[in-house]
Amino acid sequence: MIEILLKALAIFIMLTLSPFALGIANAEGNGLTHSISAAYSDVDMQLGLITQKNARACIEDECIAQQQFDERVLVLGERLALAAYAVYPDLKKRIPSFEFKVINKVAAATTSTANGRIVVYRGLQQLALADEALSYVLAREMGHVIGQHHTQNFATKLIITAIASVAFPALAIVSASSTAAQASTATTAITSAASSLTSFVGTEVAIKKAKPNQLAESDRIALNLMVYQGYDMEMVLAGLPAADETTTTAWLKELQTSSMNLEKVIHSQVFDLAQAPI
Predict the structure, then answer these.
(1) DSSP 58
(2) CA atoms within 13 A on the CB side of 226
């Protein structure tokens, strides 16, 4: 009986919060919700960076090479930003500007926030990507911003946290009315822990499930930006890392997936500017 009640409660909360979550996911024009998700994604990025291994300090010629790479990222990023505002005219209302920055982290990766901060890990420099491939990598990350994926993930976390915080206290109330009332303190602690665990696990599962669609959308947006700038997509594809079964990092695996998707598009000769929703 309790299980049935909790399931019904969860469904009710989901239906109640869905319009709110949808409003967040389509935050264009809603300054408050966009600001909240932007602040959340910024904190989320900072916490993620803490866990990443720092690259060692450069010496002599290495410092010059790093400066040149950083300048390339800025120049290519600025060009992509101009393309983004041209391809997606309403984007300026939500993202007034994009910011590109390279940080000294060992991994080869990129990350971003909802307000247009694009961060490149120093390890990406070691891939020695030509301008075509590097632009595509930056465009893919911009695709997550343009596609509002940070905001969608934030809305998902809100819904699941709300469900967990309401459902488990309800369970605690039922437990407290039983013959085990004398153990209410332990029940409360267990319920709180279960609620937190359920919220975390549920969020991770939901976001992981949505990720393939988000990656596909960011690939489409990246293609739009690259085609708008007149890039030869064959050269872009040739410059991306080849598929390697020994790849261990999630980011590189995702880049290889994007490379395979791009190859399929090139072979199908589909180079239209089908805009993704923003």
Answers:
(1) P
(2) 29
Convert the pLDDT of each residue in 176-189 to its tens digit. Answer: 554 444 555 444 44
Higher pLDDT, 201 or 125: 125
Residue-wise burial string across 122-145, b where 16 or more C-beta atoms lie within 10 A, e elsewhere: bbbbeeebeebbbbbbbbbbbbbb
Round to whole Å and give the CA distance between 132 and 254: 18
Burial of residue 156 (CB within 10 Å: 0-12, 13-18, 19+) is buried
| CA dihedral for 22, 13, 207, 117, sign (positive or negative) | positive
Contacts for 22 with CB less than 8 Å, ≥ 6 apart:
155
Asked if residues 38 and 179 have their Cβ atoms less than 8 Å apart, the reply is no
Q: What secondary structure letter does DSSP report for 245? A: T
| pTM for the model | 0.75
Is residue 256 classed exposed, middle or buried when 0-12, 13-18 and 19+ CB atoms within 10 A define those classes?
middle
**Structural domain spans, the chain:** 1-278
Helices 131-146 & 184-228 angle (0-180, nearest 10): 130
Q: Is the pLDDT of residue 11 over 50?
A: no
Tokens read off for 129 = 């990507």
